[in-house]
Amino acid sequence: MFNEKTPDIVMKALDYEKVDLVVSDAAPEFVGERTRDHMQSIDMNKAVIEICEHALKPGGSLLMKIFVGIGEKLVYDELKMFFKETKRIKP
Predict the structure, then answer these.
(1) How far is Cα 80 from Cα 2, in angstroms, rounded to an integer?
(2) How many CB atoms lie within 10 A of CB 14?
(3) CB neighbours of residue 41 within 10 Å
(4) Is residue 87 one of the residues assigned to a domain?
(5) Is 80 exceeded by the pLDDT of residue 91?
(6) How many domains does the chain have?
């Protein structure tokens, strides 16, 4: 997921067709260190957003989980640069 070729691999798998929706359930393998685990999940969120920059049609949507913690605002700030609207849904 953190490979610079990942967006190209995803696009090839999609036959270079952009999509209306990306759903991500990506999560790192947690090791029990709260801050480390959280920041790894934030890095995964950012990687998913990068994939969306290549794979989503204009006006497309992204559904992904974001773990609450110190880096959460970084993800929301990045989402706001890419999407017109963001919604936070808590289970």
Answers:
(1) 22
(2) 12
(3) 22
(4) no
(5) no
(6) 1
Q: Report the alpha-carbon distance of residue 91 to residue 63 in Å, rounded.
A: 13
Asked if the model's pLDDT at residue 83 lies above 90, the reply is yes
> Helix crossing, 6-13 with 34-55: angle to 10°?
50
What CATH number should be reported for the domain holding residue 49?
3.40.50.150
- Token pair 């936070």: residue: 88
pTM of the model: 0.86
The two structure tokens encoding residue 69: 């913690």
Domain-located, residue 66: yes
Residues 26-67 pLDDT 10s = 888 999 999 999 999 999 999 999 999 999 999 999 999 998
| Residues acting as catalytic residues | 65
Q: Give the tokens for residue 16.
A: 């270079």
